[in-house]
Amino acid sequence: MRHGKHRFLLGCTKEHREALMANLASALLRHEKIETTLAKAKALRPFVEKIITMAKKAYLVEDPAQKLHYRRLAIARIKDEDAVAILFNDRASEFIRRNGGYSRIYKLMPRMGDAAKMAIIELVLGEDIGYAKSKKRNAAKARKSTPSKKSKQQQKTVPDAVGAETATTPDQSGPEPATID
Prior knowledge:
Blueprint: H1 14-31, E1 33-37, H2 38-60, H3 64-78, H4 81-91, E2 103-107, E3 118-123, H5 135-145, H6 149-155
Antiparallel strand pairs: 1-3, 2-3
Helix pairs in contact: 1-2, 1-4, 2-3, 3-4
């Protein structure tokens, strides 16, 4: 069976694809953000995240021989010693608090010449918290946590026979929606 055999072929040979990924990864590590086609960006994401994981491991390990080993593995894949030096020396400490997800892809409008789908791929730093949760999801959870109709009817009290006003029901409006400042 061929489960788990998916590769981004990109319509080129293996050697060309390896050189393409090395050049794109080098540019991404140097500039933190590049614009390319969507297919290339999707292919670049796992490639560059594995290299960033190597840089994290090298940053955390104490043995200098092991640090050199991780650096040589990265150079073997990227083939640009300056880009690897930037990653291992300067940027590795920024990714320590982040467990994966070191890159983000934004889709853009199609390219004018050939209508190719375009995208921006950028590095995400450890301090980036990502996107805020949607209000719809929070509201759906709040509705599930409110009591059912049957229990609401049981909470209401019957008015006194003397003509007193009806008793009030407990506040069932649920939690207030979160506000974004």
